[in-house]
Amino acid sequence: MDSIFGVHEQALMLRSQRAQLIANNIANADTPGFKARDLDFRAALDQATSAGSQTQRVSVFRSHPRHVRGLEMTPVSLAVSYRVAEQPSLDGNTVDTHVEKSQYMTNALYMQATLRFLDDRISGIKSAFRGD
Amino acid sequence: MGLNTIFDIAASGMSAQSIRMNTLSSNLANAESVSSNSNETYRAKHPIFSTAYTQALSPGYFFGDENGGAGQGVEVVDIIESQAPLQLRYQPDHPMADEAGYVAYPNVNVVEEMADMISASRSFQNNVDVLDTAKTLLSRVITLGQR
Fold first, then answer.
1. Which tens digits make up the pLDDT trace of A46-69?
2. Is B140 on the interface with A (CB under 8 A)?
3. Which residues of A51-82 are buried (b: 16+ CB within 10 A; e: fewer)?
4. What's the predicted TM-score (pTM) here?
5. Closest-CA residue of chain A to B73
6. Which residues, in sequence order, are bridge partners of residue B79?
7. Chain A residue numbers touching B133 (CB-CB < 8 A)
């Protein structure tokens, strides 16, 4: 079933997660010390579409068998990184509301496009079923 | 995960900003409230914002989960009173004046509060916009494949 929707299935998931990250940035626009984060979409999509990359364990040096092992991270969380602010404010906040808003809108538009692709695919399959 | 969480995140932002507006309006309303005792004089109140990591506290959760470690919005952890000195005005005729003739007015900086109010209202609007877009996207998802 994966091949029916192609890359759009993963893209939809990543778009919604990116929207969530940016919404969180905007909600924390006035939180002191908050660092804005974003998703490297290309890297996340590469990770999500390549086979066998479900979870990755971060390698940490362990000198004792009872030391905590590295965290298991999903491909998406590996692609999340902090935004480099052009003008961080004095309280340590790196959210630039205008950048975040434009990124959120762009992300929403691309998500609409993904939804349109999925919609077309579904209606295509439907018409194939009907055979008319 | 996904778009549903955005509603919670934006709602937390709106709630935090409205608490900020509440303290602001309280400060502005009490900008001239005097008291006979300088200890009882109104002091400017300010909310303290902090990122809410509700999921981070649940067992088995670390910063790398399927949410991409997104926080869960913002929360007001405390409302503090400003430590700025009170404004002492020499008004010997004032019924609330102390022995030396000074009246303690609140340490509310009206200009600062007004600027803060504009910032709060802009931030509130941003969260509303986020919510609106998320709603549009989610309704598109609901109607997926109905054409």
1. 877 775 556 666 777 888 888 877
2. yes
3. eeeeebeeeeeeeeeeeeeeeebbbbbbbbee
4. 0.81
5. A24
6. B47
7. 19, 104-105, 108
